[in-house]
Every structure is written in structure tokens, then in C-alpha cells.
Amino acid sequence: MGIKLLMRMLRQSFKRSNKGLLIQLRRVHSSNTALQKKLDDQTGMLEKEQEFNAALVDGLRQPGTPTFSKSSCKYETVACWEYLEQEPDSWRRYLPDAEKSLEEARLDKLPELAMSSSGFRYRISLSAMTQTNVETRRTRAIRRREILLHADAVLKMTTETQHLRGENQHLNAVLRKKAEEIQELERKVESEAGLSST
Fold this sequence. Notes:
This protein is α+β, with helices and mostly antiparallel strands and about 200 residues long.
């Protein structure tokens, strides 16, 4: 095999691996932007809550401040869907898309639904409140609870941060693997170059 052919193969390998990594880095960047927006939204919400609470003296509203019903900070609740990660009480929140599917299925009174998340396929039983991994058959308990809207923003951010950390670890592993592949190709090129010159 000629040096030129090996060099061309090495360049093509670099282009493919760099293109894939660039796409993955763009995804992480857009996820970080979305998280920053959610953090800004949460901060604004907490500021409004503090403004409302500052208008209270000994639990009573001061004259001239808006009533609770007219305040911009209302205590609304939202559904929070979670699965039991580990016994006895380590609950993890579903990602927003999965939560939306679960809530829609509950409202439609469906007993079961199938969904995919993080590369795994699950069968969800809303009557038994369980999640079963289709491939491993592992079953976990699930639950639905109502939480305050501002707590929802905090939990969603925590859930997405955990998801991004996992994705970041995966990308780092892919990057290490690509670096090892590149080093192996470089060794082959050097080896071929040494054989060709003799």
C-alpha cells in the first residue's frame, strides 16, 4: 500500500470523525443554550415570588399591593412523572417528551403505552404504574405527582442537567475512541512509510 493512499485514507478518516464530532458538539451547545434559557425563566419566576412575599407583613398583604389572584406569581401545579431508579426511594424524573406522552395517555385513559428513551424501549402500564424494559424485562415502579410550577422548573433543569452529563460522558468516550483510532492510523502510516523507504 502506498504512502499517498494511506495519507488519503487518514485524511478521510479525520474528516468523517471530525464531522460527526462537530454535529455532536453543536447538539450539546444547543442543549446548553436551552438550559440557560430555562435557568433565566426560573430566576425570573423566583424573583416574582420574592416580590409577592415581600409585599406581605406577618402574612397579611400590605395596602396597595396586588391581591394573590392578580399577582403575576400564582401557585399553579403541574404533573411530574417519575420512575424508581433504585430502592428504597431514589425517584428520577422522566424527560419532558416522555412526561408529555405519559400525561396524554393518562388523560386518554389508556392502560398501556410503548415509548423509547435514551436508546431503550419501554412498555408502560398506567394501570399497574410500572415501566418494563422490552429487551431486559426489568420492571420498575412509576408514579405521577402534582408539584408547584416553580418547583417544576427546578426539577426539569436538574433532570436535563443529569441527561446532559450522561450525554457529555458518552461524547467524551466517543472522542477518546476516535483519538485512539487516529493514533492507530498514524502508526500504520509511519510503519508503511518505514517499509516503503527501505
